[in-house]
Amino acid sequence: MAGFCLIGCATPHHEIVLTIATWGDPVSTDSYTKSLNQLYKNFELDHPGVVIKREVVPDQYVSKMVLDHDAGAQADILILDAASAALFINNHLVKNLQPQVQADPNFHLQDFYPSTLAIADRGKAIYAIPQDFTPMVIYYDKSKFIKYNVPFPKDNWDFADFLKTAKALNHPPNCWGFVFGNWMPGWVMWLWNNGGDVLNLSTKRSLGTLNSPQNCQTFQFLNDLVNTDKVSPSPSAQNSLGIDLFANGDAAMTVSGHWSLVGYKQSPIDPKTGKPGLNWKNLGVAPMPHNTPTPQTVIYESGYAESSQCRHPKLAWEFIKYMTSYKVQMVYNQSGIAIDARKDVAEARATSNLEKEFLATVSGGRSPYGSKINNYTLVEPIGQSALEAVLTNHVPPKQALTEAAKQIDNELNIP
Amino acid sequence: MGPNVNAPSSGMKTSRNPSSSLGTKGMVPKAVFKKVCSYAALLLISAFMMAPFVWMVLVSLHKPQSPIPTLSHLVPPRPHLSNYPKVLLNPNLPVSRFFFNSVFVSAAVVFGQLFVSSLAAYALSRHRFKGRSTVFFLFIVTMMFGSTVTQIPVYLMLQNLHWLNTYFALIVPGLSSAFTIFLLRQAFLSIPFELDEAAKLDGAGEMKIFWQVVIPLSRAALATAATFTFIGSWTDFFGPLLYTNSTRMRTLEVGLSIYHSAYGGNNWPLEMAASVIVMMPLLLVFLFGQKFFTKGISLGAIK
Amino acid sequence: MAQTQIKQARAAWGFLSLSLLHLAAFAIYPILFSFFISLYHWNILDDHRRFVGFANYLFSLKEPTFLNALWNSCLFTALSVPLGLAAGLLAAILVAQPLRGITVFRAIFYIPAISSGVATSIMWIYIYLPTNGLINTVLGWLHINNATDFLHDARFAMLSLVFMSIVTGLGPRMVLYLSGIMAIPPSLYEAASIDGATGWTSFKKITLPMLTPTTLFVVVTSTIGAMQLFTPVYMMTQGGPEGKTDVIGYHIYTDAWQNFATGLASAKSFILLAAILLISLVQFKMVKSGLEGYGA
Fold first, then answer.
1. Which residues contact C48 (CB under 8 A, 6 or more apart)?
2. With B195 labelled, which of A394, B302, C44, C158 sits at a CA distance of 20 to 30 A?
3. The domain containing residue A41 runs over which residues?
4. Among partner residues A26, A33, A240, which is closest to B68 by beta-carbon distance?
5. Are residues A141 and A214 in the same domain?
6. Would the CB atoms of C64 and A410 count as touching at under 8 Å?
7. Does A268 touch chain B (CB under 8 A)?
């Protein structure tokens, strides 16, 4: 049976192994992984005898982290995703870092954007040090606006302006007005920007909130984009093509976060023109269209947390501090995957107009529900199912949303 | 539920059949018509069965991130063989690592399961003892219930043993199988008992009879069992999905599902290259072991 | 004499010990322990475990999503088992003919059954794609509406899974029936043809009754498999659209590993176990009486 021990036994005992769990990014570039490994190596050089081990759990990260905790086998440090942070914080899977923060004269919470700190704080307690974040924004391809003689989006556009713009740009199949997927974290902002919401935060109930008249109107609006005005390809049509239409240069606008820039930079070459489908220089960013007085968006963030079963708390704090320092983040953030949570780094890197436009949308950002409500990860598939019912199976929005609200209330209240 | 080894079982090569004995009075037009219809049906179904595999291989040769081709553009102008090394060496989803895990786990399960199950089959076919039929019945009954009922307790057990996310969790649950025991028992029963008696007179002990009489005479049955076990282990999805979580411990089957969700249906060429890598060993084993398959399946039917 | 018997028994238990140990650890103990868990409020996120008797069972039987999953599984089974059986039998009759190259066709029919479940699911996502998928491409040639999104259309999602299971399960069923057909003595058909019974009559009077044991085996094993359907749902539909493909296997999986409701999921898996046992019993009875009806 000794033959089985191929893994884990190779580490000599005198070394201290610090494990970091992360969902990783399965499709990220080689250079990202290389630079991350270099940063880890530098930490190891500064701390002789310490080995950093990265445990990548790309599939069902939340579920696996909870099960690891139950098994007493948590990694020392967890990367915390804002969209599921509440589950970790409320169930004590991660430790309060406030004592370390207070005792450490070289660490200042003021260095970070308050909206990113807000995701993992509970009163005075703070459960994660933010690394980077992204608001959800509208991306647009300026070349298409110029081609069809459409003015660029204004910061204060409403749903009607948006529709008008999309219609003017719409020349499928090579230029769709707008493209969006049925992914709830990617469309929940539409509800907010029409004055609607998913849950009543005080009662934690969905019925009466999710199926509000405003939300029915929003769902109808999204449905009309696809089925009436046909300025957006249906999810089915997108599936049958098997590509990211915006990245390939076949759509004028889309909605996504900062991480998409990594892919947009590597837009595939169009065989007809011999040029990338989407030219990086033509990329623009606008806030979400809003019928409310100000645009609302969601801030998705990731940060470093110390697990409740951390074996080396002192070292873990050293590592967190190292990874969230100016020096390291200046290197880390070169991947361009998100906006840095440190104001100094974010501002130093916001040299392009694109990045400046991004920073401008941050003020309207709210924490995702998953950072406050325990089982919010269960809500998202239900929301997606409701939009699918409307978009693909032509169920009236009111009926789909009422059904979803009932199911959400049921799921959040399982004994 | 008796031994069934001597019943005529259909190898892929057998072609004795009732309708042929009825219609041998010359090639009347009706028989010709029937033959043409049969071939048409066979070809049509085969085309439908094979089409997705042909498609899979051809799409895996397209440029990464290219759209799903229509049938007229299915053959890529220039095959992108580089998709394969790209998939195998992806630093974040190392398919080569998944491949190694699958090979290692499947090999261990095949050898372990054949050893453990052949011992049990030997006892159930060669020994008379009180409780034999009860034990046999127990094996058959547990064969009926899959992992849906046992998933939680087995998970908790592996957790208590600290075996989660190790090779133990991938191998030990597969070390014995009622199906294999059943298959081997049928084969062992067909070996003449006189051989045991002769060996016993020569002073051979139980272990010697097992190793030197029964096992060498059951090579075909063992090969059948090995083929089934290999395919079962290679394509096991539920076990590795639950009992492992880090990238370095995943098997190909789970790795492929992660690939699928990571690309979200937006990079079919790479996804198809990964699928081909998963499928190739299965097709090879099937190609070499197909005569064992039919035999094994027929043996598995309890009559 | 008695001594050799004792010796034999001792040796036999010795040979059996490893597999019995395995059986106890991975089959018997889990089933018993699963029942024990099902009587508890047991949630991984909640250290506070307490005995609740049959409360989990009562909750399950009143939960709309679980009842929906139970219904979906029964529907899937009721459609896929008889249709799969018929397809298997037809394929067996087809490949039982002494045609040139028939072994190649038998092998091709079998390939989907040895394929990886995940790869097969991805293939079938392609087969069912709107416009560009295999089925819709053929429909396009025939000038029929080819925009149906089979996996996301509430009318077709379940039927799509059923059709897939018929095709991927064709090989083993075909082989089983093939060996059943080969085992029928030709003399029976000869005797029948003297009585003037050929074609459909001889099929009804001889082939079908002689295949009853095979049918029973295929029905019982296919039912057990169909009631626990998981991989295609996990990969292709995630229970959608509108819960139309949310089958028990998938429902229990999400309860156990996404909602962490360990006790509740155990109760549900026991309800599934009871359902499978019940259906298998009924099937035994039905096939048996069907056999008697043919006077065999």
1. C41
2. B302
3. 11-135+299-369
4. A240
5. yes
6. yes
7. yes
Please indicate whether, in this complex, the C-beta atoms of A236 and C147 are within 8 angstroms of each other: yes
Q: In this predicted model, what pLDDT tens digit does every residue of A318-370 receive, in sequence order?
A: 999 999 999 999 998 888 888 999 999 998 888 888 888 888 887 778 889 99
Taking contacts as CB-CB distances below 8 angstroms, the residues of chain C near A87 are 45
Cβ neighbours of C117 in B, within 8 Å = 235, 237, 253
Q: Of B39, B53, B298, which is closest to C179 when you measure between CB atoms? A: B298
| Annotation: CATH topology of C63-293 | MetI-like fold (1.10.3720)
Domain count, chain B: 1
How much of chain C is helix, strand and coil, in % rounded to 5?
75, 5, 20
Sequence spans of domains, chain C:
63-293
User: Which chains contact A through at least 3 pairs of Cβ atoms less than 8 Å apart?
Assistant: B, C
A243 contacts B266? CB cut-off 8 A: yes
Sheet containing A283-286, strands listed edge to edge, beginning at the edge strand earlier in sequence: A253-256, A137-141, A283-286
pLDDT tens digits along A169-213? 999 888 999 999 999 999 999 999 999 999 988 888 899 999 999
Does residue A28 lie within any of the structural domains? yes
**Pairwise CB contact (< 8 Å): B49 & C15:** no
**Chain pair B-C, CB pairs under 8 angstroms:** 279
Which residue type sits at C51? F
Judge if A158 and A216 occupy the same domain.
yes
Q: Is residue A402 part of a domain?
A: yes
Task: Give residue B167's Cα distance to chain centre.
Answer: 20
Residue A403 is which amino acid? E
User: Both A109 and A233 in a single domain?
Assistant: no
Q: Taking CB atoms and an 8 Å limit, are C242 and A410 in contact across chains?
A: no
Residues of C in contact with B16 (CB under 8 A): 98, 182, 186
Tell me the chain A residues in contact with residue C133 when contact means C-beta distances shorter than 8 Å: 240
* Residue B93 binned pLDDT confidence (cut-offs 50, 70, 90): confident
Same domain membership, residue A387 and residue A256: yes
Residue B184 lies in a domain: yes
- Distance in angstroms (rounded) separating the CA atoms of residues C146 and C131: 5
Among residues 164-223 of chain C, which lie with CB inside 8 Å of chain A?
none
Domain range for B153 is: 85-300
Domain assignment present for residue A6? The answer is no
**Is B22 a domain residue?**
no
CA distance C239 to C250: 7
Residue B49 located in a structural domain: no
Asked whether A232 and A177 are in contact (CB, 8 A), the reply is yes
Pair (A88, A221) in one structural domain: no
* CA distances in angstroms from A233 to A237, A244, B14, C148, listed in the order given: 6, 12, 54, 14
- ipTM of the complex model: 0.90
Q: Dihedrals φ, ψ of A252, to 5°?
A: -90, -30
